[in-house]
Structures are given as structure tokens and as C-alpha cells.
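tool=predict chain=A
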Amino acid sequence: MATDVLMPQMGESIAEGTIVKWLKKVGDAVQRDEPLLEISTDKVDAEIPAPAAGVLTEILAKEGETVAVNAVIARLSEAGEAAAGATAAQAAPAAPAREEPAIDARPSGVTAPPAPPQAAPPTPPPTPQPPPPPAAIPATAAAGDGNGRKVRSSPLVRNIAREHGVNLEEISGTGLGGRVTKDDILGFIERRKGAPAPAFAPSAPAPVARPAAPPAAPVAPPAPPMPSAPAFAAGDRVTIEPMSNMRRKIAENMLNSRRTSAHVTTFFEVDFTNIARLRERVKKQFEAQNGAKLTFLPFIIKATVDALKAIPVVNASAEGENIVYKHDYNIGIAVALDWGLIVPVIKQADALSVTGLARASQDLANRARSKQLKPDEVSGGTFSITNFGLYGGYTATPIINQPQLAILGVGGIHKKAWVVETDDGDAIAIRHIGVISLSFDHRIIDGAVGDQFLAHIKQTIETTDFSALL
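tool=predict ok
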């Protein structure tokens, strides 16, 4: 029997996925749980394993196609069944071409006379129909019952709706169970941009002119669309490639964050010498015992969690006119991939030691690069950290990971001549110095609060005896 391959449900709020790449082609044998294809969703890119062993006999969704959850995207057959089907198809003689109709219900030898043109009953005149609404904007009636129903959609769709001042009840969802998809809302916005301004009919005898709808609350103007590729003359030395699905989503998220949050960045220099000396003493033994390298990152995460506990607003999010304070400390760690960027999340980071944080961060990074992350491992973050010092970068101004209110950036840690205080006065010493930055949402977090947060991290890193926390 054939086995259907379905588009999996990659998280509670995910309604669709995009086929990135088929790892097998029709006719290939596959084993159960062997990677069959790669998909991309709003949350994560992942390899999808084969649900059964057999032969891939049919691919129903092409690369680049976006498919609803639980839709059939391919079929597998047992090896023997697939071989038998192929043999039968080869052995069957080709059917001769026939000019007569393929289906004829008349008795043999009886030829029906041609039907006269007058035989068909006259068609009644069509009933006049009211003119359809303009195609530029879908009718509100088609979108819902007008009773404040809850519209099913993903967090990405709701963010886009907030940015553009769109009421999701006005959109007819094409996703599973009427869910409004990203394509639905983007199409609605584009149609609304191109809709002509409504004109008042001169014959309308309305004594008082009324606006079609009350004005919506002020929203930030939408960002201009990405410019299309310019025309290039023949012979120009260029290569043009379309953005990947992940790259398009990264672009959307970056622009969305810039439009949503009032970004401000502050910087602090930090002396990492105590941690650097501890690492030199124990890193070989640590890796042998734990199977993970002891980098600066777990110490920084530990200091960050302490600062979040001391200054809770940095661990919050903004929902309309409300500030939502989070009591979980779920730290997202940005991971650079060859094909983009992803932010897996260390859940309940406050419950982990430095050793636990080292294991967790490296495990998530490794599985991100091998596309083995689960949807819940890239969602639910309350605060994010990005390390742009991996290649020696000094500092940067990272963009906030929505809906969070801040993101910590870590620059390269380098040996420098540094002024230190001693019992005999000031002296110059060689120290391990790095710059940390905090980009924060100035709508909620004031500059003084941002500086207090970084000062707390700086003090923890410079004065804590982390050897007791391994």
C-alpha cells in the first residue's frame, strides 16, 4: 500500500510550510526516518524524515511551493509494489489511437442522427445581478460574520496586521480551517494600496455625508517595498539569484523590528580577565568531562540572567499599551548559518549552571546547523544575545528580536594595555577587554535603565568567582 507523506505541523501556530528542497527524487529508495525533504516555516527550517520505508513514487509539491499543514506532498510505495507497477507499465501495449468518442452508450450498430440545433431548450434570460464589489478590496462580508469572531492566524501575520493597521476579520483566510496566512494579508495590503479612492455618487440623496468608516488609530506608515532588480545591459558581469525563503523572512523580520521599536544602543567596555584565566586553567578538563568547549558565552549568559532578575523590564514585552513582565528567563542565542540566521532558545536559563549553559548553547547551535531544531526550540524567548565578536568584530548595534524589548551584543575580546587600580596607585597591565552593547526599545526602556542593565552585567563578569558556579 502507498504511504502518504504529509506536510507536518511544525508548531501550534504554524499553518503552512514551504518546500525548500527534495533530498530524494522519484524512484529513489528511502528508509524509515531517513531525511526526505527540507521545509521552511515561520519558525524554523527543518529536515523531514520519511514516515515509512519504500520507494518515492510521486512528488505532489514542487520546491518553492507553500503547502498547508497536513496536505499530501508525496507518496511512498513498498519496494516490491513499486517494482511490480513499473514492470506492468512497461509490459502494457500502447493503446491505439481512436478517432471515435471514447465513451459511447448507444447499442452496437445503431447510429444516432445528428441533433438539430433547435433541439436544445431555450436558455432563460439571466437574472440581473448586482455589480460585484471592486476586486481591489475583498468585501467585509466574505471575511467573517461581523460578530467579533476570533481569526486564526500566526504571530507573524498578527505582527504584520498591527504594523499596517489591518483588521484580520476583513480578510478571508485560505489556510487550514480558514486561517489567515502570510500570503493572504500581504495580498490584502497590496490590493488596498492599489484600490481607487471611493467617490460619492452624484445621484445619492444622502442629506448628510458620512465617512465609510471611523479613522483607525494612528499607526506607523508602512515601509516602502523592496526595490525591484534594475535592468542590466547585455554583457554586464552580474549574477542574479532570488532570495531564499529564509532570507526573505529575515528581511521581513528586520524591517518589522525597525518599524516597531524605537531603537537605541548603549555600549560598555568590560574586563574579562578573570574569566579568561579561569578558562585557561580548566578548559581542557572541562571539554573532556562534558563534551563541550568552555567559551566566554555561558559566563555572559549567567551574568545576563542575573541582570534580568535585577531589572525586570528588560525581560518584558510590549502588547499595545500594556507591558508584559515575563517570569521565565528564556535566552535566545543567535546562530549564524551558511544560509541565514536563526535564534534557538535556552529555556529556563536561570536554572542552569555555567556548565549546563555551555552544554545547552552548543547543543542548540549544532542542531541549528544540521536543521534538527524543533519548533518550540526557536520560540518563547524573552531576551536575546548575539555574538558578533566571533571573527574579531569590535562592536555593533544589533536589531531587537521582536516582540522582545532588548538584545545584548558581544564584541570580540582582545588583550589590551589597561589602567588598573592597585594598592600602590594606578598601573598599566595587559587585560582581556571586550565591548558589550545593548539595543533597547526606547518606548519602554529609558536610557538610564539600559545603562544600569549593562553596568550590572559588567560588575558580575568582573567580580564574580565563577569557579564555584561551574
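The chain has eight helices and 18 strands. The chain has a mean pLDDT of 80.
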